[in-house]
Structures are given as C-alpha cells and as structure tokens.
Amino acid sequence: MTTTPVPVALNTFREAVRDRVLYNLIFFALLMMGAAILVGQISIGIDRLVIINLGLASISLIGLVMAIFIGVGLVSKEIEKRTLYSLLARPIRRWEFLLGKYAGLLLTLAVNTSFMTLGLAAALYWVGRPLVRADALVLVAVYFILLELALVTALALFFSCFSSPMLSTLFTLGIYITGCFAGDIRAFGEITENPAMKTFTRVLYYLIPNFHNFNVIAAASHGERIPISLVAHNTLYALLYMALLLVAASAVFSGRNLK
Amino acid sequence: MSTPAIEILGLTKDYPIGFWGKQVRRSLDALTLEVEEGEIFGFLGPNGAGKTTTLKLLTGLIFPTSGTARVRGRSIDDIGMHREIGYLPEQPYFYDYLTARELLDYYARFSNYTSRDRRERVSRLLERVGLTSAADVQLRKYSKGMLQRAGIAQAILDEPQVVLLDEPMSGLDPVGRYEVRDIILELKRQGRTVFFSTHILSDAEMLCDRVAVLAGGKLQGVGAPGEIVSLEVHAMDILFELPPGYDVPPALRKSVTRIGARCRLEVPEAELYTTLDELRRFEARILSVSPVRPTLEDYFLRLVGERRADSHGVEASVR
Lengths: 259, 319
What we know:
The structure holds two protein chains of two kinds.
Chain A: H1 5-18, H2 24-42, H3 47-71, H4 73-80, H5 83-88, H6 94-126, H7 136-160, H8 165-180, H9 182-191, H10 195-207, H11 217-221, H12 228-254
Chain B: E1 6-17, E2 23-35, E3 40-44, H1 51-59, E4 66-71, E5 74-75, E6 85-88, H2 100-108, H3 115-128, H4 144-155, E7 162-166, H5 174-189, E8 193-198, H6 201-207, E9 210-215, E10 218-223, H7 225-230, E11 235-241, E12 256-259, E13 262-268, H8 272-281, E14 285-292, H9 296-310, E15 316-318
Helix pairs in contact in B: 2-3
C-alpha cells in the first residue's frame, strides 16, 4: 500500500488551517450560543428540537460550502499556481496526488464537523437538560452529513480535474440540488404518461447521487429511530459512488497535459 | 558504450487550438538529442522555441504527440524515472503558506528518509542555497530571487543524477547568478548531469560542455559552444588613439566608433594590414588588435532573425 498520499493530505489540511478556513467555527459557536440563549426565552418544551435542527442544518450548510468551494480548487489551484509542477516531477503518480488532496479536504471537513458537533452538544447542555440516549441520533445525522460531504467533495474534485473553478462550482452545486430531489424525480417519472420522460427520469435518478437519503435531520431532532439498515445502505452507497468518482477523476487527470 | 543520461528520440508535441481543436500548433518538432552522463548541457532558444515544452515532456507534466525519451535508460512513462531527476520549473511558485524549511521537508517526505535525515538534509540544502536566515519565513514574503533559490534546493534535494533546470538564472542578481553557477559546477564535480534552459548566453558559454539551439520547435544545432561559433566569419577589432590635431582618415570615418579619446574599428580580417597602414599614416597609436570571435549570442540572434523572417504560418497547420 502506497503512503504517498499521506504527506499530500496533511499538507492540504495545513493549507486549510493556515488559510483560516476553520475560522468558520467561530461563527458556528456564536450561532449556537445565540440560539441557546434565545431558545430558552421564546420556546417551551421544543428547545431540543430547535437547537438540533438549527445545529445540524448549520453543520451541513457550512460543510457544504467548504466542500464545494475548497473542493473545486483542489486541483485547479495547484495547476493555476504551478505548485504542482515540482511535485509531479517526483515519483508521485497522479492518482496518488488526487487521493491525497481528497483525503486532506476530508480531514479538514471531519475536524471542522467534529468541533461543530461539540458546539452543538454544548448548546444542548446549555439549554438546561442532561444529554439523553436519543441525542445519540445526532451523531448518526452528523455521520450522514459527513458521508454527504465526502460525496460532494468527490464530485467537486472530479469536475476540478477538467473544468474551471466557476464551472466546477456550478456543476457540483447543480448535481447536489438535483440529488436532494432524487425521490421527487423518481415519483414524477412514475406518474407521467410520457415514455420518454419516464426513461429520462429513471436514468437521471440512477445516475445522480441520491442526497435525499442522507438527510435525517428531522428524524434526529424528533428522536425518531434511524434504522441500522439505512446506515449500512448509505455507507455502502457513498463509498461506491466516491470510488467511482475518484477513479473517473484519476482517469481524466492522468491524461491531462499540465500546460 | 555507456547509456546516455538523457536520450530524446523524435519528440513532437502538438497543441490543439481553436474552439473545436481542429487546428494544431506544433510546439516541438521531432527533437532528437543525447546528453551524456556528467555533462552540463545548455538548451538555448527564444521564447516559444520549445525549451519548456521539452523539459515538461521529460518530467511527465505533458505527454508527447509522438516520439519518446529516456532518462538513464528509463522511459519517461516509467514512474521510476522520476527518482533519477530533479526539476526546477520556470518562474517557480511554491505553497506560499509554507516556510522554505517546511517546503523542503514536505518534498523530502516522498523519499522515505528518517525524520533526522530529513531535518539534516533540509538544513544542509538551505545553507547551500543561502537561505538559512530566511528558512522559517513564509514563502509569500520571499523575493523572486529567494524563490528561485528555494526552487533549486528542492530540485537537488534527493541528490538526483540528472538535474533539469528551466531558466535557473532568471530573476537572480549577479551574486545569485554566481551562486547558481557555482551549484551547477559542483553538481558536475559530483558526476551529475545538468540540463538547463537559459536566455543568458554568457552563462551557457561559461558553463556548458555542449549546447543545443532550438527555434520554432526545431533543433538548429548541437555542439560545444566553441564548435557552434567556429563556423562563423571572423573580423578584427582595432583600438587606437590619434595624436592631437589629427582626425580619423576619411576612408575609415564611417566605420569608426569614438569612445572618449579612443577610437574602435572593426574590419574584415583580410583588410587588417591595409587599415593598419592607413592608421599609421595618420600617426595613430595602436592600442590593441584582437580577433572578433562571434559569440554564441551572435549565432543565436542570427538564427532567431532567420527564423522570424520565414516563420509566419509554419507553426499552424490543419490537422
């Protein structure tokens, strides 16, 4: 097993830290503190629901912004700034470089998400109730958010291997939004009479990643049980999709001339 | 017979141009070249000649349209070939959030050194390129010359047998250029091969065992700097002073350049003695007579001039 991606990943993480990417944690902390104080004053009995909903939605949104905007620059920035030249002249395969960049951003997202989850736990504690067993559902929701972010990052990385950052952002965001409505697309295909539209919606449903399945924020906030089969399904689904996207990104990038 | 350090066999690189990419621009045209082990080899040519393209092909940053190349017998497609080379890109730019020490440490991590060996190696190289005092300063605060030194340090970090340098003197002050020349000569003393592109012809004349001149993607000539220029027609340079009250002989007036009280005259070798007789007739004091050996620069400029005269339309062709 090659260890070459490890230094690339650690350097990508270091870049994010030095570029003050993790400063968003301050914003998140302020948001959670504000919400915790406010919720105690305006709501009766639904403080947990509000805090969890707000916390998980913020974790997801902040992670998404980071995954897309840093993800689309992972490769294109290195090419544009020519920092890649002296690196790829070394005995480093291009797929190893890509894997390292991908792992580095995942590490950044994981650290960021972990701190935000701690912030959410602190806010829950602040609103005056001890953590209960049902709160563990928040961890499942956070795990799903991480899977979702890993998928979005893989998409952004794939597009950044052959298109400009702006186009990569549009493509990634477009697929993400479409993927959030995957269930609706399938439902529309089932009710339509038009055979061409039926085929189109079916192909689209199976082609784009289904992000709808990763959203269990409502279930977590209401303390509803999340089946273990969904955890296994989402994990396998995300891993398979990520692997496909990384292989495709490697294939594209390995044949690219770095002019 | 030993394996050449670099063997380039008919390397050609076309780039598609236009929206549909149906036209191509030929950046490098069937380049064939050999560089021997231990040589300092200069790669000369104007902008757009194909020098950087050649170096990028050798380092695997771009892929040839046709032809191939080998470094110490290993194909450029072979990942193991990269262990043999060190590369300084043109106008290098590195991760500017790192310090020079961190940058070199990062690159060294790809070579399985122990952490102690890595630390020592990095410190040694920083000292070698004169960056010890700025070793812990972020690269975003470096001048162009300092970045160039950091670039040279990373190129020789793993003690490669073949060092490829793209315009290594670019952006350096005279002291920096002297230091880089010194590093290149030291690499040669260690038995390494240095292949570098440059615009600074005096550096090539001073350093190179052999040079190749490239124009419009085509090889124009290869040889020792002396060999390349020896084919040229020689002239003679005469430096003289005239006594007070004397003027330059009318026959020579058009060709003379005045430098203060002194005059300089360049004449064809065949006319040397006639000219000296004429000057003596005017009681001129001859200060020096020296042969004008055309420099590599003259050769280079002539080639480029010829190239520009007939190059329009050559580079673009319909696929």
